[in-house]
Amino acid sequence: MRIHPIPSRLKPITRVLSASLLMLGLAATPAVADSSPSPSASGDGAAPAAAGTSFRTATEIEQGQTATANGSAGDYLYWSFPADAGQRPTVKATVKLPGTHAAETWQVDVYDGLRRRQSCQYGAQTRTAAAGAASVELTCVLRTVRAWSEQWANDPLPGTYYVRLTVVGLTTGDLGLPVDTELRVDSKNIGGAAAVDGSLAEPLVPGIAVRSEASEAKGSESGDSSDSAVLSSIEPDDGWSSGWWSDRWVWTAVGGVLAALAGIGGYALTRGSGRPSRVPPGT
Predict the structure, then answer these.
(1) Considering only CA atoms, which of 59, 70, 75, 98 is closest in space to residue 181?
(2) Assign residue 121 a region: left if phi > 0, alpha if psi is -120 to 50, beta otherwise?
(3) pLDDT tens, position by position, 138-181
(4) Which residues neighbour 64 within 8 Å (Cβ) at sequence distance 6 or greater?
(5) Is 142 helix (H, G, I), strand (E, B) or coil?
(6) What is the pTM of this model?
(7) Where are the alpha helices (DSSP H) in 34-66?
(8) Radius of gyration for the chain, computed over Cα atoms and rounded to the nearest angstrom
(9) Comparison of pLDDT for 210 and 212, the residue scoring more
(10) Measured between alpha carbons, how far is 272 from 254 in angstroms, rounded to an integer?
């Protein structure tokens, strides 16, 4: 098989295409890396060793931390954590049971910043521990958090999320038995696949509305207009995203550049070499 060399007039176009593809590959590398699972906070910090008993007293935890708490069968245990746009949180809870007990059914529920119960995409949200079982493990994988949604929709939105762990099936004799619990929240960054055109004015964090009004009143006097929640101190490490940027912009630019290069290459291949030398002008 004979391989024909590339015509000299196409060599500059070939070099341009090669360089452009190399640059686009380097630009798209961070976007691809964002789609890999990565917690928003490391577990090196001191993890909480207690849980709240209501939404208002929920213990704040960061993603990537393993929180622990001691309680009694029949208690309602609450934690809260931040989740930003593009994240798909996974809540894992482990309940260590006493040596002797009857069959127990435990359940983990997740609520958003508006205290709307969020359904789980998959995972064992409710599980029954057989009599004498040492522990029971629960998992809830939420839907991807959206930067914006319609008011009538129940889509997960950026802000604080609440986790409630309790037993829903228990015999009277086991009520009040001591239990040890562990809770961990991790997220997978979905990226541009879940991007939407829009963003919330503020994340759904407790106290953000009150703080915003106070900041506006203070800003009119001192010029300071910084907004931050007063009833919740947790937020992602890099702050709340604005909602307008995603790796979808990168792939849109890649498609546009490739289309332009394909048009230039097609024109160069079909335009020919011009008028033959043997044909006189004006014919």
Answers:
(1) 70
(2) alpha
(3) 999 999 998 888 878 888 999 999 999 999 989 898 999 999 99
(4) 39, 40, 41, 42, 43, 184, 185, 186
(5) strand
(6) 0.69
(7) none
(8) 28
(9) 210
(10) 29
